[in-house]
Design brief:
The protein is mostly helical and 417 residues long. It has one domain: MFS general substrate transporter like domains (Growth Hormone, Chain: A), CATH 1.20.1250.20. The protein has 19 helices and no strands.
């Protein structure tokens, strides 16, 4: 029986559940919990710098871990398959380490706990990402990538308002219980996502014959065959810059709302922004994946870059609550078109038998974008010191530049027809 026949619509959901659970955890931490918690340690004038350096360090950990775990997963064999054992172990480690975020009494301790949590979740995430090239037929990977992105967005925004409510109460001297509710709830979702994946995803048996030794493979974990897969390099560069624009906005959104919009409940407004992005993203992400299967990946990615630039321009000239929501809608359209189509392009480009390693290498762009984008924090603080709010204007101009460059770099990519 062909893979086209055995891969059913419900299977798109099964291979996307864990991505949704990871998104609940990291969107909650990055958008709401950590920025507010950092205000207890960081000087007011350097809060963007502290946030940028913290998340930069964690992203660099992710860049290092995912390709190595991908190599091990590609060569792993067990009754549970190649990917699910890593999802199980990584999730259990993450749940053990998650309380360190709430127990942090200083910036160094928070930094250590955050980096260890990145190690744990990336042990699970690297192999998880290989479900699509492992299981989905070539002609349906755009749809599968759209379903994956849709699940991650739903996970990211579905409970964000609840986490923001917990953290607004915590910031308002409501007691430690609110902080633990904000941290514990995403942890429970992550546990549920892992259990659902372990029970519902059925991996095909794999053969390890003809593959190089694990030691040799680990030594070449970061190697890219430039001659045979040169387009993968252009893909990585394009993905890097477009994601940098998105990550800059997500990372410093709460401080932008607090310092520029001057809203009394910055966590709530930031959650509203992310929810608006998520709603519009959901409207676009699945149709974009389908269209990319028919029209090709590059036209949809170029469209997403144009809409992203338009959204930032709106935010630049309309720095109000309404302007934030309009910007969120445009960025949601841009993100939806980009995320499903770009991931489908990644699965098109990976060599057969090295799905987890090459998709782990995409984390050079994904986590690398997260790392480099967060170095914008010191830039924001520097220009804010020269003139109040100037740093945020510079931040928006940087985002426009990233969108333009990332869109241009996808043009040389030659995907599979």
């Amino acid at each position: 029986m062909s893979i086209e026949r055995v891969f059913r619509p419900v299977d798109y959901v099964k291979i996307s559940i864990f991505g949704a659970a990871l998104s609940v955890l990291w969107v909650s931490l990055h958008t709401i919990i950590i920025p507010l918690q950092l205000l207890e340690f960081a000087p007011e004038a350097q809060k963007n710098t502290y946030l940028g350096l913290l998340t930069f360090a964690g992203s660099m950990v992710a860049v290092f871990i995912q390709p190595l775990v991908g190599v091990l997963s590609d060569r792993f064999s067990s009754p549970l398959g190649r990917r699910r054992p890593f999802i199980l172990v990584g999730t259990l480690l993450a749940l053990l380490l998650l309380p360190s975020i709430g127990l942090s009494g200083s910036f160094p301790f928070l930094l250590l706990g955050y980096c260890l949590l990145q190690v744990a979740t990336n042990i699970a995430q690297g192999p998880f990402q290989a479900f699509i090239p492992d299981m989905v037929p070539q002609g349906r990977r755009g749809i599968a990538s759209g379903a994956k992105s849709m699940a991650e967005v739903l996970g990211g925004v579905a409970f964000l308002r609840l986490v923001a409510y917990f953290m607004d109460n915590y910031a308002g001297d409501g007691g430690e219980i609110w902080l633990w509710l904000a941290i514990g709830f995403p942890g429970l979702i992550l546990l549920g996502g892992m259990i659902a994946t372990m029970l519902t995803v059925k991996e095909q048996p794999s053969s390890l014959s003809g593959q190089p030794s694990t030691v040799k493979a680990l030594a070449g974990a970061y190697k890219i065959d430039v001659k045979g897969h040169g387009s993968f390099l252009w893909f990585l560069l394009s993905r890097l810059f477009i994601l940098m624009a998105m990550v800059v906005l997500q990372t410093f959104a709460l401080y932008f709302v607090r310092d520029v919009i001057h809203h009394p409940n910055p966590a709530g407004v930031t959650a509203d922004l992310m929810i608006t992005v998520g709603v519009f993203l959901l409207l676009v992400v699945y149709p974009a994946g389908q269209l990319s299967d028919r029209l090709g990946r590059k036209p949809i990615i170029l469209f997403s870059g144009f809409i992203g630039i338009l959204g930032i321009i709106v935010l630049f000239f309309a720095r109000t609550y309404t302007g934030i929501l309009v910007c969120g809608g445009l960025l949601g359209i841009s993100s939806g078109a980009f995320l499903s189509t770009n991931w489908a392009l990644a699965t098109d480009l990976v060599p057969v038998g090295e799905g987890a390693r090459y998709l782990g290498l995409t984390n050079i762009a994904t986590a690398g974008a997260g790392a480099l984008a967060r170095l914008t924090g010191p830039v924001i603080d520097f220009f804010n010191a020269q003139q109040s709010g100037l740093g945020y204007s510079v931040m928006l101009l940087i985002c426009i530049f990233y969108f333009v460059l990332g869109s241009a770099l996808v043009i040389p990519v030659k995907g599979k027809k």
